[in-house]
Amino acid sequence: MEPRVRVAVCLSAAERLLLVAHRKGEHQYWLLPGGGVEMGETLVEAARRELREETGLDAEIGRLLIVCDAIEPGGRHLVNLVFAATAQKAPPPEAAEVARTGGGGGNPPLDPAIDEVRWVTREELLGVELHPPITGAVAAAWAGGFAGAVQVLGNVWAADPSHPSGPAQSPGT
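Below the sequence we write its predicted structure tokens.
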């Protein structure tokens, strides 16, 4: 099985960062907006498409921020590439949470896997279950204005003891 390339974006506006929630059964977890790269698509094109599909927003995709792998014992291997992004339309300052049907302040999301779209504060980011488990790296990039060196994290996969059959989680986020 070949590695799958996944792109994601750190889109911030009005001191908030955009996250999307997925749900597996009763378990909800958060991700940066993003997804798989399609054949013939550039990384930037994929990031822009995934952001639009998941949140309804358009953004200018910027520099690479974070690179990490998630290599599961069963053989699945994801290569995650996280980019900075600049919203073409900023959310209103009071936009703490947006309904799934309203997207992130743009058009409704097209991806039925999205359970919720939310703009979070720095403090809220530290309290969510983020997948892949890169909360610390995202927080560091955000604190540095998304201008620091690219963070190369290596393999961040580790079994989540509270969800043995569910998503992976890292012991050190």
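The CA atoms of residues 56 and 107 lie 4 Å apart.
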